[in-house]
Amino acid sequence: MVGISATLGISESDAVRAALRSVSELLVEPGDETILRPLAATDWPWPDFWKPLAEELERLAAAGLPVETDSGVKNTIIKVDKDAGYVVLLSERARSGGARTITVGMLKNRDATSHGVIIRRLRDMADELQASQPVGSGWFGPFKVIDLLKGCTDPGQPWPPDALGVYAVSRQPWHGTPSRKADVLYVGSTTGRSARFCTRVGDLMADLFGFYGDFTGHSSGGQKLHEWCDANGVWPGELFIGWYAEPGMCSRCAETRIFDDLAPRLNAIRPPRCTKTHG
């Protein structure tokens, strides 16, 4: 396609759109043309957060409800195109009086300065939706660290959820629910309901294997585990890791409870107690 666009003297994206238009006119049955539309966008394939976010925006639009920013500004949903990857919003405080189009590509950059307030609100909505997805309940694992990494492309390998989880790293395996007999070294989680639990485990893995410097790092827990392994002649891949997950749980409460039950050796301080009242 790059060679064709150069020959014709048009951009690659224009060439893709022209080709898809021809294909849709010749081969696609009426009403099925939406299956081709994402391919004409440079941001396709969409990130995982887009589909549930688009469906929630469609639901809000059907109910006549706006997207409200943290400062209380209401944004009317004019159009949601899940297939083409964009939403059109009209802010009640729009200086120009016109609507604005927010694409999936724009949403990928949470820290964008252009339309930053509404982009961050939409991404927060996406995180909340991902955090509320069912992930199963109870303890998953334990898995030997090296086996978990080897299975990273295996669709049958259980994987940490995006949010709402507590992990435990131990010297010995366990069955069912871990106990202090597993020699638990470290327990950790994330604060709030942000969709960063899986990423947090990834941060732990990076530092567990020594990928940090004197002034940079990802996970204090991973660094403590790496130092412990180095001091005790244990290869990090031989440790065991598992995680507890439950839909809708409070990660802070769960982490505190698990910390008290397992008494991990390397945690410097006890996790702070949750200050929220749960119904």
Q: Which spans of ≥5 residues are poorly predicted at pLDDT below 50?
A: 1-6, 26-33
Structural class: alpha+beta
**What average pLDDT do the residues reach?**
82
The count of β-strands is 8
Helix content: 25-40%
- Beta-strand content estimate: 15-25%
Question: How would you sum up the global shape?
Answer: elongated
Main sheet: strand order: 1-2-3-4
Computed over alpha carbons, the radius of gyration is: 24 Å
What does this structure look like?
By secondary structure, this protein is an alpha+beta fold. It is built from nine helices and eight strands. The chain has helices spanning 2-8, 12-26, 50-62, 104-107, 116-131, 145-150, 197-208, 220-232, 251-262; strands spanning 67-68, 74-81, 86-91, 100-103, 138-144, 165-170, 184-189, 240-245. The strands form two sheets. Strands 1-2-3-4 form a four-stranded antiparallel beta sheet. Helix 7 (197-208) packs parallel to helix 8 (220-232). The longest helix has 16 residues, at 116-131. The radius of gyration is 24 Å and the shape is elongated.
Quick tags:
279 residues; alpha+beta; 4-stranded antiparallel beta sheet; 9 helices; 35% helix; elongated; disordered N terminus
What's the short version?
The chain is 35% helix and 16% strand. It has 279 residues and is an alpha+beta fold.
Provide the fold topology:
Layout: H1 2-8, H2 12-26, H3 50-62, E1 67-68, E2 74-81, E3 86-91, E4 100-103, H4 104-107, H5 116-131, E5 138-144, H6 145-150, E6 165-170, E7 184-189, H7 197-208, H8 220-232, E8 240-245, H9 251-262
Antiparallel strand pairs: 1-2, 2-3, 3-4, 5-8, 6-7, 6-8
